[in-house]
UniProtKB/TrEMBL annotation:
GO terms for molecular function: aspartate kinase activity; ATP binding. GO terms for biological process: homoserine biosynthetic process; lysine biosynthetic process via diaminopimelate; threonine biosynthetic process. Its EC number is 2.7.2.4. CDD domains: AAK_AKii-LysC-BS, ACT_AK-LysC-DapG-like_2, ACT_AKii-LysC-BS-like_1. Belongs to the aspartokinase family. GO terms for cellular component: cytosol. This is Aspartokinase. It is an enzyme of class 2 (transferase). The keyword Flavoprotein does not apply. Substrate binds at T46, E73. Keywords: Amino-acid biosynthesis, ATP-binding, Kinase, Lysine biosynthesis, Nucleotide-binding, Transferase. It catalyses: L-aspartate + ATP = 4-phospho-L-aspartate + ADP. It holds the Pfam family ACT.
Length: 402
């Protein structure tokens, strides 16, 4: 069997944890499996490196940022290989480039274009455990790129796809996907099986346990994923797959919280055809991820436009919108918001799910600033300080603790 095993930041957080990973990997290899391991940087390392870069300027050059942050995963890949070789296993550590991962040029959020698996295959055929530095690839100029925060998940899924692996295991610090972040609600329940679609919503709405782009790719390539704990590897985790047996029965599968968004409001902008296309076109040109757009009905030829962007893209957003300071009455930025979302495929065929969410927040005296819905989710923007409270109240309202 060929298995891809990915270990996240806490799982390789110090030398003891790396030894623990080496033990898990060795056990698999000793059972006769071929193993490809993808590692993250040690917990906190990527943030530390980003802080270093931001010390000099608010907008450090993205090419150099990528070169800098990609080093975190190189450290852990080399250390894991050293640990395994010290235990008598044949292993080799590879950077993203050496593993054949080619990406677009969009520094800090590059997309994987192609993987040339020949080098990995050669090493596997020679009986080696192949260890890959996650989160990184190389663009057509030969520059190092990174795949967005949490991007080692994407590396693992992409490699599982490219090698046609039998299994893709994501080892982290929780033993599976829960009905909400167990750090926020200890009563959260572990889910045995979850569909790609639901996991994709949870992940893109803030459940950082899986990077959303990795789930998107898993769905596209039909790679089944098991999320499990490196602290308790013997415990069965959560299977992320195409369809689950009780999909239609479950109304709400989980609650997600995203505190990394910021709100932008442009008041009194000229109300004419093409104004939205113009503003959002300019933001798109800078690769800014706009979400949850609300435009009110115009009055006196003026309109108000409110939307959210990731906090990390707020500075760039301000730069882009500078020219609208004179073309509007005012622009307001607020990074103390939270987006709380209720997700469930079962919502498609039930009514009243949204009403329950609004009533629950009202009962807690939480004001809703923005709302957006799709077939399988309801998202509400609220004041950041009520984020956790809202999660717990909604978790209870939909009886997810039962
Ligand atoms: P890693 O470093 O292994 O990639 P992350 O910190 O990125 O791990 O993701 C794991 C964390 O995700 C957990 O510690 C947990 O707090 C958080 N999390 C958020 N939502 C959920 C959820 N629905 N189920 C499980 N964990 C969740
Ligand atoms: N180290 C990177 C991050 O912190 C990638 C990852 O952990 O998956 O975002
Ligand atoms: Mg992660």
């Amino acid at each position: 069997m060929l298995v891809v095993q990915k270990f996240g930041g806490t799982s390789v957080g110090d030398l003891d944890r790396i030894q623990n990973v080496a033990n898990i990997v060795k056990k698999y290899a000793d059972e006769g499996n071929q193993v490809v391991v993808v590692v993250s940087a040690m917990a906190g390392e990527t943030n530390k490196l980003l802080d270093f870069a931001n010390h000099f300027t608010k907008t450090p050059p993205q090419r150099e940022v990528d070169l800098l942050v990609s080093s975190g995963e190189r450290v852990t890949s080399a250390l894991l290989s050293i640990a395994l070789q010290a235990m008598g296993k044949d292993a080799i550590a590879l950077t993203g480039r050496q593993a054949g991962i080619k990406t677009t040029s969009d520094h800090t959020k590059a997309r994987i274009m192609d993987i040339d698996p020949s080098k990995m295959k050669k090493h596997l055929d020679e009986g080696k455990i192949v260890i890959i530095a996650g989160f990184q690839g190389i663009n057509e100029n030969g520059d190092v790129t990174t795949l967005g925060r949490g991007g080692s998940d994407l590396t693992a899924v992409a490699i599982a796809g490219a090698l046609n692996a039998d299994k893709c295991e994501i080892y982290t610090d929780v033993d599976g996907i829960y009905t909400t972040d167990p750090r926020i609600e200890p009563k959260a329940k572990k889910i045995d099986m979850i569909s790609y679609d639901e996991m994709l919503e949870l992940a893109s709405l803030g459940a950082k346990v899986m990077q959303s782009r990795s789930v998107e790719l898993a769905k596209k390539l039909n790679v089944d994923i098991e999320v499990k704990s490196s602290f308790k590897p013997e415990i069965k985790g959560t299977l992320i797959t195409k369809e689950t047996p009780d999909m239609e029965k479950v109304l709400v599968s989980g609650i997600a919280l995203d505190k990394n968004q910021a709100r932008v409001s442009i008041f009194g902008v000229e109300d004419r055809p093409g104004i939205s296309a113009e503003i959002f076109g300019k933001l798109a040109d800078k690769n800014i991820n706009v979400d949850m757009i609300v435009q009110n009905v115009g009055k006196d030829n003026k309109a108000n436009l409110t939307f959210t962007v990731p906090q990390t893209e707020l500075e760039l957003t301000k730069e882009v919108l500078k020219e609208y300071e004179n073309k509007s009455e005012s622009i307001e930025y607020d990074d103390s918001i939270a987006k709380v979302s209720v997700v469930g495929v079962g919502m498609k065929s039930h009514s009243g799910v949204a009403a329950t969410a609004f009533k629950t927040l009202a009962d807690e005296n939480i004001n809703i600033l923005m709302i957006s819905t799709s077939e399988i989710k309801i998202s509400m923007v609220i004041d950041e300080k009520y984020g956790e409270l809202a999660v717990r109240a909604l978790h209870k309202a939909y009886q997810l603790d039962k």
